[in-house]
Write a structure and sequence with these properties.
Layout (H helix, E strand, L loop, with lengths): L2 H20 L1 H10 L11 H27 L9 H21 L33 H24 L5 H32 L1
Length: about 200
């Protein structure tokens, strides 16, 4: 192995290790806990996700390091990279799977239709104080409706595919999105009438 290959290999290991310790597990955890876009904040959702992802990744790495160090024997000494990477990647895989199950990765449906999991619809009951208008809920509903309308526009072009399976898949997704837009409009009417 020549020097350039060794340097490139070391550089890739440093980049992968930095991403695993400082970003990936925390971001997967945030996505698992808040699967809807705009759920943390309608305007700066991505910034919050990135910041929380970095902070939580560091906390997760520290806790995993403490746990591994507490179960290691005295002759082994400190924790090595292998077990640390294994546990961090396993936790990340669990977070991603649970997030996918909750509908956080709808774009996986483009890889294969069976991977698509829709978000569960929200309910308005119990989220609003009687006689007051919930502005935050209204903002989230409007944001979700705009996202769905953009998704419907994108799916219109894809639904004209020559492949009948893909055409059916994209039409079903458009129908689900349209149904959800109608539900959101009804919920917005209820929220707005309750506050006026």
């Amino acid at each position: 192995m020549c020097l350039a290959q060794r340097v490139m290999s070391s550089l890739l290991q440093v980049i992968a290790g930095t991403a695993i310790v400082f970003f990936v597990p925390g971001y997967a955890l945030v996505t698992m806990l808040f699967p809807r876009r705009g759920e943390l904040d309608p305007e700066y959702d991505v910034v919050y996700r990135l910041a929380l992802g970095m902070g939580l990744s560091i906390v997760i790495a520290i806790l995993v390091g403490f746990a591994l160090n507490s179960i290691s024997s005295e002759d082994q000494g400190y924790v090595y990279a292998g077990p640390l990477w294994t546990v961090l990647l396993s936790l990340t895989a669990v977070f991603v799977f649970v997030g996918w199950y909750r509908g956080a990765y709808p774009s996986l449906g483009a890889v294969h239709p069976s991977l698509y999991r829709p978000l569960k619809p929200r309910t308005v009951a119990g989220t609003r104080l009687s006689g007051t208008r919930d502005i935050r809920l209204e903002g989230r509903l409007v944001s979700e409706r705009e996202t769905l309308l953009g998704e419907i526009k994108g799916l219109l072009g894809k639904s004209s595919s020559s492949n009948p399976r893909r055409k059916l898949y994209y039409r079903r997704r458009m129908d689900r999105a349209r149904e959800r837009v109608e539900e959101i409009n009804a919920e917005l009417d209820r929220v707005r009438k309750g506050g006026s």
